[in-house]
Design goal:
Length: 402
């Protein structure tokens, strides 16, 4: 089922992450120089009502300045195989791990914001080589995790690219790697990218595995509060609840969509500001119902995600996708569904809830729906074993039906 990387080896180049020490020193100096005394009278609610409180951010930044070891994180990243290839005049960075056995299923993983290719690093080995971790070689995937244009170690596009353009670019990547057909997984923006791949490239996509439903049927724009004329009571209730959450939590997205350059200037020159902007999303979007935020994510995990935006100067271009999306289709065409078999891993995301199965089936061919007992927007950190098991179960379902 898998094929070698490419007949033209010149098209795909090995890549090693190596950030200059001067760049790391500059970030550390800016973090150390942050004037915490100006925050002495700032709201410091333990429930994060006003955003990241100083009681969390200050210890995080002290750890960052004094104890955080980027080189250790860099070594962990470089333990995987990294590559660069040029597609449509843009350098695309990706991680690739060929799976064990002759029947490994190609799997493209599309990340979201504010995370990265690295968010999946500790899943790659288990997905590609399950037999090394108590699993079966028959469940292996050949894993490809690209960085979006404008993110991390990929190049910057000449103009903002929306999820549809990125979906087509990633399909070209998989073709270059020799994969005729492949599975896709995504959350956040990755859910949009993978659904668009399923809709526009159904002959290439074996199955869609997602933690969100962002591409909706006609008249049901995601996060708009809009429901189609023939909506059921269940759908109307879900759309209303989803919209109420978004009215409370969507201010960041409004800035990303309308004033990305304005925000980019501020974040580009402030490591602590970038950290606060990103860490707040991790707190707001994770499942803290049973476990406190401090137990869900380590300082190292949070800071490495932040650092990937800083060491690559990627924050300004990472949010271009929000504005570019406005110029692409907002919903599926009237009367159309994504007919590629779809699995939904319904984690307990408090800001981007997965629709009930009956609602999701209006836009997607849902063949597997898993209501997860815990985990939120970031299951690769919050519930990695649940995510891996769900992917494996879906792999069995879609490959048996072929």
């Amino acid at each position: 089922m898998t094929k070698p990387i490419a007949a033209d080896q010149r098209a795909v180049r090995r890549y090693e992450i190596r950030v200059a020490e001067t760049q790391l020193d500059a970030i550390r100096e800016r973090v150390s120089a942050f004037r915490w005394e100006a925050w002495s009278d700032a709201p410091d609610a333990s429930d994060w009502r006003y955003g990241p409180p100083a009681s969390f951010m200050r210890p995080l930044c002290e750890y960052w300045a004094n104890d955080y070891d980027w080189r250790a994180q860099e070594r962990e990243m470089n333990a995987l195989q990294h590559f660069i290839t040029t597609l449509d005049d843009i350098d695309i960075h990706f991680v690739r791990e060929e799976g064990s056995g002759a029947e490994a299923v190609p799997l493209l993983i599309a990340h979201g914001w504010p995370y990265s290719f690295h968010s999946y690093s500790r899943l790659v080995e288990k997905l590609a080589h399950p037999e090394r971790h108590g699993g079966r070689v028959e469940d292996a995937f050949s894993v490809v995790v690209p960085s979006y244009p404008g993110y991390d170690f990929s190049g910057r596009p000449r103009q903002p690219m929306g999820p549809r353009a990125i979906a087509f670019l990633f399909d070209k990547l998989m073709a270059r790697l020799g994969y005729d057909r492949y599975m896709v997984h995504g959350g956040d923006w990755g859910a949009q990218v993978t659904s668009l791949l399923g809709f526009h490239r159904p002959d290439r996509i074996i199955g869609i595995h997602s933690t969100a439903v962002a591409l909706r049927e006609a008249e049901a724009t995601h996060l708009s509060g809009e429901a189609p004329a023939d909506a059921t009571a269940e759908q109307k209730s879900f759309v209303a609840a989803e919209y109420a959450i978004w009215q409370r939590e969507g201010a960041y997205s409004q800035l990303h969509r309308t004033k990305p350059a304005k925000l980019g200037y501020a974040m580009f020159d402030s490591p602590v500001g970038t950290a606060a902007w990103i860490v707040e999303a991790y707190k707001a979007w994770s499942d803290c119902a049973d476990r406190p935020f401090e137990e869900l994510f380590s300082f190292d995990q949070l800071l490495t995600e932040v650092m990937l935006y800083l060491v690559t100067d990627a924050f300004p271009t990472s949010i271009w996708i929000y504005g570019a999306k406005r110029h692409e289709e907002r919903t599926l065409p009237a009367g159309k569904r994504v007919m590629v078999p779809t699995a939904l891993a319904a984690f307990r995301d408090p800001v981007f809830p997965v629709p009930p199965r009956q609602v999701a089936e209006r836009s997607h061919n849902v063949v597997q729906y898993s209501a997860m007992p815990f985990g939120g927007h970031f299951p690769f950190y919050e519930a990695p074993d649940l995510l891996i098991d769900d992917l494996r179960n879906f792999r069995k379902a879609v490959t048996k039906s072929r």
